[in-house]
Amino acid sequence: MCGFAGYAGMKEYDASVIRKMTDKIRHRGPDSQDAFVEGGVGLGFVRLSIIDLEGGSQPMFNEDKNLVLIFNGELYNYQGIREELIQAGHVFTTHTDSEILLHGYEEWGKEGLLKKLRGMFAFVIFDRKKKTLFGARDHFGIKPFYYYHKDGTFLFGSEIKSFLAHPDFQKELFEEKLPDFMTFGCIPGEETFFRNVYKLLPGHYFTCENDKVNVKMYWEPTFDINENQTIESVADKLDGVLEDSVNKHIIADVPVCSFLSSGVDSSYVAYELKDKVDLTTFTIDFVEQKYSEAPHAKELADELGIRNIGRKVSAEEYFHDAEKIQYYMDEPLANPSANLLYYISNRCSQDFKVALSGEGADEMFGGYNIYHENISLGGYQKLPKWFRKAVAKVVTPLPKFKGKGFLIRGSKDVEERYIGNSNVFKYEERDAFLKKKYKSRNPLDIAKEFYDKVPDLDDVSKMQYLDFNMWLRQEILLKADKMSMANSLELRVPFMDIEVFKTARTIPAKCKVNDSNTKLAFRALADRKFSKKSAERKKLMFPSPLPNWMREDQYYKMIKKEFKSETAGKFFNRKKILQLLEEHKEGKVTHSIQIWVVYTFLMWYKAYFINNGDLDKIEADCAH
Fold first, then answer.
1. Hey, where's the site called Important for beta-aspartyl-AMP intermediate formation on this chain (predicted)?
2. How do residues 374-391 score in pLDDT, each as one tens digit?
3. Rounded Cα distance, 487 and 347, in Å
4. Annotation: binding site
């Protein structure tokens, strides 16, 4: 695991430029740092040593030194590919997974290589003779990849902050993206809050030659539902494929641990690990015990006979570190659980370099509570659509009453009512909270691009497909990588495996949700492994005392200060956002998520546009 940064262009720079770029991401790889510079190309690398601790340094070369590689990730099937390449005559000089990319590219070319890879990865290969760059990102987007392209300068890397150190990078806020952020709490799609900075999307690769950058998709998640399956038959299939995935994800030359919450996902990972490694698990805890998952995690740990260590989080540190956490995030992310991931990663990294976690199970197996909705609305939606629309039109202007939401949502198809797990400021109201009127897209139009690709899927699978392409990419995997790597910890996610997906893509809705539970087939499998109490426990999604913390004077005043600031006045209707805060403080209604979206943006803006991405200044700012 590591981080990389690079540039390509007509101008030539000495090695100090690429060194400064990788200095900005040294947290991703504190064990070593190196670079390659030739002409207008610079490739920099920082390493967190996991496999072949002595021989895996990068940038890495092929036999004739013509190809140069920088790579971030883990390839879980590298041993088999390595043997195949040796049989084809390739000579290896290391025992790392990285080296198969160089020889595989020589042997099979771009898409031929990518078809063979199983793992999490982002990499770039430079051909010194042809003066071309080729790079790719893994199927699901577990590992980040950003690039900047303007005026003959092409920058790329694991984190945007590395671009700040390049003399040709023009830092500019892409202010028009603010409405999207207000809705989703992140920026969907390939664009970012930095103008001309893009994400290389999951399942995509790029080529760069003569300042022309071409991006192409090599894989996308598609469903092939098999309705003949039962809950038990799916559980049987998952049993083998999940054990195999965990076995692949523990390949390392350093000890491995895991995160453990009260949910079935991380519990299952811990169960699979307990007989394979000397397992220690880590759990988020709170001073306020009613929010804590630690007692449930400890209960399961005792049941499985494994160690469990809790990491208590306080309101003081949560708010104290808000700006620093958004700095590490690169892209502002308003998911409150990101801070918790930061703290558990920090504790874990004191003893380990590699941890396994349960991200992705909900998207794979149908785990979100909203997926129940097709069942709860099912009977009503059998009525004619014109009738349901008429009822909704009548009740919409009426005062709130029990069942009003049901009648309104029941009048809509899934494409009209579901834009993904994030829907913070409703489209109809968000502009009132902004200082300016921006030209922006309706969130339904953003979601429609994905729904249009899967018109024949059932409603549950449609929601899964949307979350695969939005929520999972933009929130779940983003915070998993950034918060773990901020603490020099490699986080592996065995549910997010291409072989697991081959089974998950066939699961019918009846094996995912019913009127009382989610992830039915997966829970049935978990029932076989550990207590039904743990297997059936409802998903809590990192519960936190944040709504109550915001009502405490100390943190209420901290937020209020930012909401009244000159920066807030540049972007937001201060009267409206302060009204949200006051109503929340008084306990009239809970606005914690909306408040956190605004506050998160202000913290991120302060980190990058006031403190200019200078970590020393950011930490000094946090101290005050």
1. 359
2. 888 888 888 999 999 999
3. 9
4. 97, 284, 357-358
